[in-house]
Amino acid sequence: MYQEHAECGKLPELLQRLGEDLTNYLRFEHPDAMCNEESWKTALGGPLPDQGIGCEQLLDIIGQHLIPNGSQVPKPGCTSFITTGATSIGVLATLSGVVAAPQRVGLTAFNYLEELSLQWMAEMFALPSTMKGIYSSGGSVANLVALGAARQWAFERLGLNPAENGVQKPCRIYASSACHRTIHRAAAVLGMGRSAVITIATDNNGRLCPNALRRQLQADANTGFVPVAVVANAGTTNTGAIDPLREIAEIAAAYQIWFHVDGAYGLPGILDPRIRPLYEGLSLADSVIVDPHKWLGAPVGIGATYVRDRSILNRAFSQGAADYLEGACHDDNIQNSMLSMGVPYHDFGVELSAPSRGAVVWALIREIGKTGMRERICRHNDMARLVADLARKHPALEVVQEPTLSICCFRYVSDKVQNLNDLNKQIHRHLVQDGRCIPSTTILNGILVIRPCFVGARTTEQHARELVDAVVETGNNLLRDMHPTT
Questions:
Q1: Is the distance from CB of 416 to CB of 482 less than 8 angstroms?
Q2: Which of 222-231, 247-256, 322-331 has the lowest mean pLDDT?
Q3: Exposed (0-12), middle (13-18) or buried (19+): which is 1, by Cβ within 10 Å?
Q4: Which cofactor does it need (predicted)?
Q5: Does some domain include residue 237?
Q6: How many domains does the chain have?
Q7: How far is the C-alpha of 172 from the C-alpha of 179, rounded, in Å?
Q8: 40, 58, 109, 409 from 51: Cα distances, Å
């Protein structure tokens, strides 16, 4: 019979083998997973195993068939999504937590770093020192937690408790047309409904229009709706636009509405001194979110929500008494780390069981410091500006929206083609198929654009230049196929 504990002494050797396989993967010399789909499905699949094969043989399969057929997202040339491959220290810190802190409870070194890393991030991103946070699995849950706090606050002002008795009145959440769709999902999950999210117009740069917000709030006054929150973006997913935070904050304050800032992607941009003034008014927010698994280089699964008064999270999300927990821990004369739950994060959000996320963020910041983070942010913003500059100078390219952060929206143009949207869609598909440069696309005012987002720690200026060259080369080749005689 296979003995699970027998492998414990082999952990160093097994980790070394795994490290070698991951190192090979990070050379990005392997083909895309779809090139040999049948091979790895055969190796990994099959009927439910009756007998185990043991750790060493399984590690062989992982190294030969699983890791090499992973995602394209960590590639330095992949600029599609605002997630990326974790940095090496992020991987190592995560592994440390998986082994040594499998649960977010107790007075341990890992849980000490949960609170410390939240404090470090707040300081690094110029949040008020009074704002406290909680980690979750990413921006989706982080926005949910923030809007749950906003819902609690709005109803408490009416003498009602939505966490206890549910949503008893129709609600309104005000967000721009460029807001992330997780705002709508949060509204649905929190019982307010997706239709509670009222779309506010944006300007030509994708920023929420304060005057449009003011008009909508005035129109909704005395209608019976409960205004739950005004949501602003500190870096939209589409273009990296930063809403006029101070103006929006002042309007929200005038109407006594919770002011939430979604900085899942763009909050670290405040470290770039060239655009720091765009974050003026951030300190007026009632809640702010940021995803360390984006620009900070953490493994996917780490988001953070900050609120001015963390006690409201307890009122909104406390799970209530549980027989198996009550009395298990206390705060008097503690002699063992398991005698106290520590900070009651389990009552501040929607997760009871949760991994050690704080140690990962602590390691990321401790490794390169605030200065290193600033250099990374500035380097990536420079890449977006470089793409824009190269596109402006090339006769076959057009900048559709100037970059604010590390996103640049541009496209291939030609007077020989009537449908430029279709042409650029084809260009994008060829780029993805080729696999060297993998941007995404988006639609701006009816125009389909190529949309690289530079957030990967391993991505360099050369990758930005290669993308522009690849767009031009691919566009030229497609034109040549369309008009072979010209």
A1: yes
A2: 322-331
A3: exposed
A4: pyridoxal 5'-phosphate
A5: yes
A6: 1
A7: 15
A8: 21, 12, 38, 53
Of 470, 443, 467, whose CA–CA distance to 456 is shortest? Answer: 467
**Domain extent at residue 214:** 89-365
DSSP code string of 369-435: HHHHHHHHHHHHHHHHHHHHHHHHHSTTEEEEE--SSSB-EEEE--TT-S-HHHHHHHHHHHHHHH-
DSSP string spanning 176-188? ETTS-THHHHHHH
Would you say 289 and 263 are in contact if contact means Cβ atoms under 8 Å apart? yes
Flag whether 180 is in a domain. Answer: yes
Alpha-carbon gap, residue 290 to 445, rounded angstroms: 27
pLDDT band at 103 (very low <50, low <70, confident <90, very high): confident
Pull the structure tokens for residue 310.
Answer: 């963390």
16-43: per-residue pLDDT in tens? 999 999 999 999 999 999 999 999 999 9
Selection from 457, 299, 280 nearest residue 383 by Cα: 457
> What pLDDT shows up at residue 5?
54
CATH number at residue 179: 3.40.640.10
Query: Mind listing the pLDDT tens digit for each residue in 152-209?
Result: 999 999 999 999 999 999 999 999 999 999 999 999 999 999 999 999 999 999 999 9
Token couple for 302: 């780490």
**Strand ranges for 153-209 from DSSP E:** 171-176, 197-200
pLDDT tens profile 414-436? 999 999 999 999 999 999 999 99
Query: Which tokens is 3 given?
Result: 């003995």
Could you give the CA distance from residue 270 to residue 203 in angstroms, rounded to a whole number?
22
The model's pTM is: 0.93
Angle at which helices 109-124 and 358-393 pack, to 10 degrees?
30
Query: Are 363 and 89 in contact, with CB atoms under 8 Å apart?
Result: yes
The answer to whether residue 7 sits within a structural domain is: no
For residue 343, the model assigns a pLDDT of: 84
**In the Cβ-directed half-sphere of 344, how many Cα atoms lie within 13 Å?**
18
275 dihedral zone (left: phi>0; alpha: psi -120 to 50; beta):
alpha
